[in-house]
Amino acid sequence: MSVRIDGRTILLEGRCSVEDAETLLLALQEQPDASVSVEKVQKIHMAVLQILLALKPEIMGADASLFLSQNIFRSLIWNSDTGAKSF
Amino acid sequence: MDELLEQFLIEGRELVAQGGNDLAALAHDPQDAAAIDSAFRAFHTLKGSVALFAMQPAERLLHAAEDILERARKGANPLDGDAVTALLACLDQTDRWIDDMERQGALPGDAQGVSERIAALLTATPCEDTPAAPTPDDPADWIATLMVREASAIAQANAPLTAFRYTPDPACFFRGEDPLSVVEAVPDMVALAILPVDGAWPASKAIEAFSCFSILEGLSAASLDVVRAAFRLQPDQVQFAPIAPVEAVRQASESHGESRMLRVDSARLDAMADGLGDLIVAINSLTPLADTAQQQDRALALTIRSVQASIERAAGKLHRDLSAVRMVPLAPALRRLPRIARETADSLGKAVTLTITGETLEVDKQIADGLFEPLLHLLRNAIDHGLETPDQRRAVGKDRDGSISLSFQRSGDTVIATLSDDGAGIDPHRVRQTAIARGLITQEAAAALSDAAALRLILLPGFSTAATLTEVSGRGVGMDAVQAAVARLRGTVEIESIIGKGTRFSLHLPANALTTRLLVVEVGPERYGVSLDQVLETVRVDRAALMPVGGGLACVLRDRTIPLLDLAALLHLRGVEGPYAKLLITQSSGERVALRVDGFGERIDTVVRPATGVLASARGVIGSALLGDGSVLLVLDLPELAS
């Protein structure tokens, strides 16, 4: 299981697969103002990423191993909470 | 501010202005094919630009408008007057939203409702069944939007790029596909964006966790074939487009003879102008040096003078070039006026046609920037106080719609902005009465004024009071604000009015504002600069020709008696009495006034720095100028001193 809830923080860890999308969605529906920590993410599935982009929770977690060489996905997640639909 | 947003504010407004011009042409002739084409392009590009920001209501509205123009273009649904009016409402609203984006970085809360209301206007026109959602499949759309969004990545690339737009099948997750992994396999990625399929991300409740609702758009430095290979399992879900590097794009556009524009922060130009001013000051200091050398070595003095002349020539050229760079067309500064005219007229239940001509005229940036405020005030005033209501207009046989024209002309070094209306005109008799009632002028003085001079009374501070100000032109300032704003630009205001026919305001402004030609005058032991723009002429008269009139002095010049003021007295200095009186003739409040000085000095071309600190509050001082010998010259504002 790569989605863990710790109080008001939802932690994504390791390889987040398509099954984690529903868990994350439910957790964010329950606590819309929860923060999501991506510090320990190694790989993220499109199904999980699009939920982060759509719901724009506060993203936490400093630099860690990147799941794409250009650091592009990380900036995508960070920029997504500016409210712009693209970046 | 975000660089992308900054760029959008500039370009978005240019597009609004472009669309506004086209719609103005369409208002005259709704079948003007060139105007329909141009308007379509403006709306289309605007739609692409707003799509980059959280402006979905604007995007939807512009899409609906674009659709109407598209049908008109194809001849499917010709435009009519109502459609043009609705399109204009759509453009005005977009303009307001751009203002909102600048102010608060977001659209106001009511944007959705406003968008729907205006969209309803659009669909009420013969073009029905307008689809509300953008058509993401239009290839031109996504490429244009992507190129704007990824402009910096494209600018940094020095080789062709390949753009792709990957719209995964919504059910792809069930097949074990991960679009992100697919994209990860694309080599040499330089940019990636993930966009919602429907133009906006779904709300929390509406999300289906196992359905893909994202579109992935990216740029790769790899060739089209290589990128295509990465998507070999999803061939029907991806579109590709080659993107030429910026250098190539630029060369291509050059070869088409298009102009290359460079946007430069105006502060940099101001800094250059300041630097040039310092240079001119430094060059001026060669004159006293040559004079000193003259006493020792005439040959050396001659050499210094010839060197000075060649540096002056070079600096003069630099000055002309820099002035040319600072010359900007008036049009951008005026682009908000048509919308404001419509809004103002609407709020007063009046209708107005505003025609602007000569707006392509180029003037110094300072003038272009400074002109908006007084023109805005004059325009509001013309609609509010100048134009009659539609009923009144009909009663006197005029068109129901008032007509206001704003024109710009160049005359030598002067730009003349003329705003005329076909309203009721200003009654000089009523102006006199109001001025007397407000205690601005005595009954006798008012009676002595010519009608033309009486009209100028409306420019006096305190002429407009709360009782006469409506919400529209009011805002707590009267016409004196126009006078003050124009005076700051070293310009003058002229008023002509014919009762029943209309009123014409002419603003005369210098076209070049970089350096000012100053005349140095001596008053007692002091030297001051006066702007030659403010000096009508300088004369020397016999002291015996000065006549005491009332408590003051006057003199006769070309058969006209003009009041005379002593500059020394105005400046609390002791003047020098000589056999001749040296007079500066200036114009204050439309009347000629003579100012007596003790002597005329040299004429210099220099940069006048605006008065700051203590000087700013001193009456009659425009600013200061640095002289060649390092001393500071105070520059006087003659009309203000004489008033």
Which quaternary structure do these chains form? heterodimer
What fraction of residues of chain A sit in β-strands?
Answer: 25-35%
Query: Low-confidence segments of chain A, ≥5 residues, pLDDT <50?
Result: 63-72, 77-87
Q: Regions of chain B with pLDDT < 50 over 5+ consecutive residues? A: 126-137, 247-259, 466-476
Describe it:
The complex is a heterodimer of chains A (87) and B (643). Chain A has 87 residues and is an alpha/beta fold. Chain A contains 3 helices and 4 strands; from the N terminus they run E-E-H-E-H-E-H. Chain A has helices at 19-30, 46-55, 72-79; strands spanning 3-6, 9-16, 35-44, 58-60. In chain A, strands 1-2-3-4 form a 4-stranded mixed sheet, with helices on one face. The longest helix of chain A has 12 residues, at 19-30. Chain A starts with a strand and ends in an 8-residue tail after the last helix. Mean pLDDT of chain A is 72; it is low at 63-72 and 77-87. Chain B folds into 5 domains: 3-124, Up-down Bundle (Four Helix Bundle (Hemerythrin (Met), subunit A)); 139-255, Alpha-Beta Plaits, CATH 3.30.70; 266-328; 330-510, Heat Shock Protein 90; 516-642, Beta Barrel (OB fold (Dihydrolipoamide Acetyltransferase, E2P)). Chain B has 24 helices and 23 strands. A 6-stranded mixed sheet of chain B has the order 20-12-13-23-22-21. In chain B, helix 15 runs parallel beside helix 16. The model of chain B is unreliable at 126-137, 247-259 and 466-476 (pLDDT under 50). The interface between A and B is medium-sized, with 30 and 34 residues.
In short:
The complex is a heterodimer of chains A (87) and B (643). Chain A contains three helices and four strands.
